[in-house]
């Protein structure tokens, strides 16, 4: 089974224009993400899926592999599917967002292992226990699962609502996905669904169409980059990492 890791990176970020090239301790963010992903052992190949020549050049200059994709993709999944079309020998595609410069490589390997364990698995993602201060923020997506670890729902609202204190853990969804290639191509062709559009959460499209999403748990927490404040925090973390080398 061939597993590849794809990093979609869109240049025209609304809140942080040019985000893939944002400096993190002397290197562009896309390069930092690429370097982290290379530390995973199960993917046979890592590809940055980019829409801007400057981002392409940054990846190639750092020794990485990049593929130019269309600028007008409405979602990251569409960009991912374009790469999947160009990689017919891939069986499983792991999607790591281009704004996760602190992604833990072990999570990538753990997600890949789920597909090695279950030949019928179509889609999988990751959750981690949510910190108290994260619960009220719509940007922190919550997920609830059944007893077998399959997603019941994803929401920007707090789920489950704690009407009774039963000790149920609130989980934060980490935006890393694994797909069986044939399912990814099918999924990208599905029409947007009502819940997906209401919550602005693309993964709900799979649930609304009756497909299962396996959700594995981790205790890892790391900062993604959505704002200038996030970028400053990540820079501080990297500077500390550099000092402790």
Automatic annotation (TrEMBL):
GO-annotated molecular function: 3-deoxy-manno-octulosonate cytidylyltransferase activity
GO biological process: CMP-keto-3-deoxy-D-manno-octulosonic acid biosynthetic process; lipopolysaccharide biosynthetic process
Localization in the cell: Cytoplasm; Membrane
Pfam families xref list: CTP_transf_3 (PF02348)
Function: Activates KDO (a required 8-carbon sugar) for incorporation into bacterial lipopolysaccharide in Gram-negative bacteria.
Protein name (record): 3-deoxy-manno-octulosonate cytidylyltransferase
Gene3D superfamilies hit by this protein: Spore Coat Polysaccharide Biosynthesis Protein SpsA, Chain A
Organism per entry: Megamonas rupellensis
Source taxonomy: Bacteria, Bacillati, Bacillota, Negativicutes, Selenomonadales
Pathway assigned to this chain's UniProt record: Nucleotide-sugar biosynthesis; CMP-3-deoxy-D-manno-octulosonate biosynthesis; CMP-3-deoxy-D-manno-octulosonate from 3-deoxy-D-manno-octulosonate and CTP: step 1/1
The family this protein is said to belong to: Belongs to the KdsB family.
